[in-house]
Write the structure tokens for this entry.
Amino acid sequence: EVQLVESGGGLVQPGGSLRLTCAASGVDFDLYAMGWFRQAPGKEREGVSSISSDGLIYYSDNVKDRFTISSDSAKNTVYLQMDNLKPEDTAVYYCYAHIQVSIEGSVEEWGQGTLVTVSS
């Protein structure tokens, strides 16, 4: 069974930093990509950042130059370093992974979410 375990959320003041971690377990074959979405109160879920197995990286325009995504392929783990946090970054952050589960098949998995609150 594939599971994603998230950690690192919490309360931080504007201008502060947090580091999110997501580890995938039960991966029998390979990870194609991992990344993060977020959902703020009263808003729809939006993509934040992702990294593929061949090193392609995506950032949303709202977080460019402030967030940095990285990964440890040996541990099937992705990190999101969030610097200069703003109140509008407040949201539940969800980890996702695109995982190969058979010779010909793949699935998308989602974590349970970790809450990031940016407030003075």
About this structure: The chain has a mean pLDDT of 95. The longest strand covers residues 30-39. The CA atoms of residues 33 and 55 lie 9 Å apart.
